[in-house]
Target: Hydrolase or metal-binding protein
Amino acid sequence: MLKGLVITPPVVGRISIGRVVERNGKRLPEKDDQFTLTSQVQNRAGWVLHPLDEALRKDAGGKLRSIPVRLLFNDPNLNLRADYSLFDRATGRPMCVGNGESCRRLDKGEISQLPCPGPDSCAYAGGDCKAYARLNVGIGDEDELGSFVLRTTSYNTIRTLAARLEYFSAVSGGLLACMPLELKLRGKSTTMSFRSAIYYVDLVVRSGMTLEEAITHAREVERVRKEAGFDQQALDEAARRGFANGAFEDLDEDVSSVVEEFYPAGDDTAAAEPATATAITLNDRLAQKVATANNNH
Model:
């Protein structure tokens, strides 16, 4: 195994909410109220849709707001990795990744282990550090060890997914990889979103099943896998070693799309409105702050 290279779950596609559009010569993130499954290929129009997108959309009657998924690992922290992350906007490279206690920081080609005060108190980040998470899930039966990745800086999504994974792991006796689950898109309004709808991702028991039925199903799947010689514990351990093999999970070529899509307007505090309307509101607020500061001098 190459040292310094984080070995992540094989990715066959992406899960996104919204897209990047070009407006007034700038590429800006545009929110949506449904999921989109894409391949890992881009053309001039954007990301190429994955064949499963059309199939699932047809079953859903048009808008894709829930996706049946399976988890690869029993350990919740292997399925969802969340960090406080700072990216170089020019190159897309990760500069600093921490968990609120310690961080790995790239400085002059060297990686240092330092205390992490969190994004609100970090002078080094200058306000550009954000919570950033990657969730890997299996969709469909074509590739049982392949996954679709959902990347997000949404606090609502990260907090909800982290809680659900821990809860489902607890009630199933640690059989997360055997549970029949689905990703579900939920909407809410907050004062930070100016009372417009924002959307976040939840993880729930698959439609048509109760929690008890899902647990029974998970135990049956585990029994069948054990009889076939499937070693889930070894799979979890292999993934754990892979994640620990390097300092930063995302490759430069992957993070450039993350920076474009999520920074600076990709968190869930942005209103789900046209970018021009949001920009006017933010400019007005900035002007008010400047005027107040001038009056105080």
In short: The first strand starts at residue 11 and ends at 23. The chain is about 30% helix and 35% strand. The first helix runs from residue 51 to 60. Residues 11-80+134-291 form one domain.
